[in-house]
Amino acid sequence: MGIIRNLVTNLTVIRQTSIRNHQKIIMSRRLHARRTDGVDKNVWVEFTQLAADYKAVNLGQGFPDFSPPKFVQEAFCKAVCGGPLMHQYTRAFGHPRLVKNLAKFFGRIVGREIDPLEDVLVTVGAYQALFCAFQALVDEGDEVIIVEPFFDCYQPMVQMVGGKAVYVPLRPKAEGSAILSSGDWVLSAEELASKFTPRTKAIVINTPNNPLGKVYKTEELQMIADLCIKHDVLCISDEVYEWLTYDGAKHVKIASLPGMWERTITVGSGGKTFSATGWKVGWAISSGHIIKHMKTIHQNSVYHCATAAQEAVAEGFEREYELFGTPESYFQQLPAMLHHKRKKLASCLESVGLQPIMPEGGYFMITDISPVKVDFKDQSTEDEPNDIKFVKWLTKEKGLATIPVSAFYSPEHSKEFDKYIRFCFVKEDSTLDAAEDILRKWSHGQ
Ligand code: IK2
After folding, report:
1. Which ranges of 161-305 would DSSP assign to H, the alpha helix?
2. Which one in 134, 181, 398, 426 has a CA-CA gap of 20 to 30 Å to 435?
3. Which of 151, 154, 277, 305 to mutate to test the pocket of ligand 1 (most atoms within 8 A of CB)?
4. Per-residue pLDDT tens for 256-265?
5. Rounded CA separation 304/195 (Å)
6. Would you say 72 and 289 are in contact if contact means Cβ atoms under 8 Å apart?
């Protein structure tokens, strides 16, 4: 009797488990589209959470931990108190005051008239400008060349439209020798040319680059532009750090080179421009014949972004137009302030025996961690790339959060570059001091 009862119980358990598994399969079939496969991991989600969990000093994610300048804070407050319409929908493709000011400001920079209504699209951060570009311009089977290291969202965005990402890395000029500047990392013209095929639809570049800090020189941009024109290819140019260049490096817009305006989508960020990343105001600027397709994606996805934030960014640009090139301009003051923070972080890293690569621009500095020998006791990270192991260890054991650089590479090249980690230096001096304290104690064996 007992044997039969056991058998019945076992059979019931097996049956219930198999029903549950079957339901799981049906649920997973019903609940997800294949385009989400393989793009579910996200470096910001994972490492920002890790930093929070361990209450680490955060030199990880790229946002300032200081306030935006007073004039844009006041502009935001004024907008919020500016009457009922500031709280309602505005024009779908960009608040009129903002597109007018973006067109005026960037028209002067690229040396051509920009039509505020046709050539500008305001988006929910630069992220959404990139999303609209890939959705609107890349078809299934199209190839998109991505220069590595790259801001991590380019690859999943290409994959989600059924495109094929084709990678080409920036490499240190002389392997093995002391590499001191992001300017020493270059594209091989031959290697890049070999990536263009009849299926190539677009190339994505990012200058100043995240995470390396490279600021492309005019000759480098001209080489890319020549290939785009020769192969009739679009250029998506991510320029969110455009005002942040150091030691005389100059940011050049590829859209301003001859023959490039018609084929370049320039992506910008109000968050990075005015140190207010949470506002999520971004834009794409291009010829109207390209922007019109991006508008289609935009109107059928988010429709528009927050009115008051757009009003504040518009006011910021109005002010900057008047002060452009003067010491009062925030576009002069911010890089001057960051120049010191960058130096402070570099000397701290050097003092503990690390060799940073001096960025010519942007928010970040990468450093080679291979001289450091660490016994990672954490078994859960055993199969992970070295930089990921290191970053997890540094966050959990020492309380300092950074970002692994392999996250900015394709699987085929990540192994070559997993000896670097990224630090964000757009932080209060007190945060940088706290990081320095941790590094010094660690280097003294504490
Ligand atoms: N493009 C680049 C190159 C970016 O760096 C960013 C923001 N990145 O910040 C996260 C980090 O690297 O730590 C974006 C686009 C997105 O900009 P926005 O915030 O305007 O959407």
Report:
1. 189-195, 218-231, 270-273, 288-299
2. 181
3. 151
4. 999 999 999 9
5. 36
6. no
Q: Could you report how far apart the first and last alpha carbons of the chain are, in Å? A: 66
Torsion of CA 273, 275, 280, 286, to 10 degrees: 10
395 CB-contact burial (10 Å; exposed 0-12 / middle 13-18 / buried 19+): buried
Rg of the chain in Å (alpha carbons): 24
What DSSP assignment string belongs to 145-168?
Answer: EEEES--TTHHHHHHHTT-EEEEE
Q: Is 57 helix (H, G, I), strand (E, B) or coil?
A: strand
Rounded CA separation 70/269 (Å)? 18
Residue 354 CA, ligand 1 centroid: distance in Å? 26
Report whether residue 237 contacts ligand 1, using a CB cutoff of 6 Å: no
CA distance 393 to 383: 14
Find all residues with CB under 8 Å of 215, minimum gap 6, and list them: 182, 183, 207, 208, 209, 245, 249, 250, 251, 360, 361
Residues 137, 438: Cα–Cα separation, whole Å: 46
Residue of the nearest CA to atom 11 in ligand 1? 62
pLDDT of residue 444: 82
Each residue's pLDDT tens digit, 359-387 = 999 999 999 999 888 887 776 767 789 99
Cis peptide, bond prior to residue 149, ω within 30 of zero: yes
Ligand 1 centroid to residue 126 C-alpha, Å: 7
- The position carrying tokens 């506002």 is 279
pLDDT, tens only, 8-31: 566 565 666 665 665 665 555 678
User: How many CB atoms neighbour CB 176 within 10 A?
Assistant: 6
Q: How many CA atoms lie within 13 A of 121 on its CB side?
A: 33
The answer to whether residues 329 and 321 touch, using CB atoms and an 8 Å cutoff, is no
Q: Which amino acid is at 262?
A: E
State the average pLDDT over residues 202-231.
98
Q: How many residues does the chain have?
A: 446
Q: Which two tokens stand for residue 200?
A: 């190539």
Tally Cβ neighbours within 10 Å of residue 21: 10
Structure tokens at 394: 């540094």
**Are 324 and 84 within 8 A, CB to CB?**
no
Name 373's bridge partners.
none
Q: How far is the CA of 300 from the centre of ligand 1 (A)?
A: 23
Ligand 1 center from residue 283 Cα (angstroms) = 13
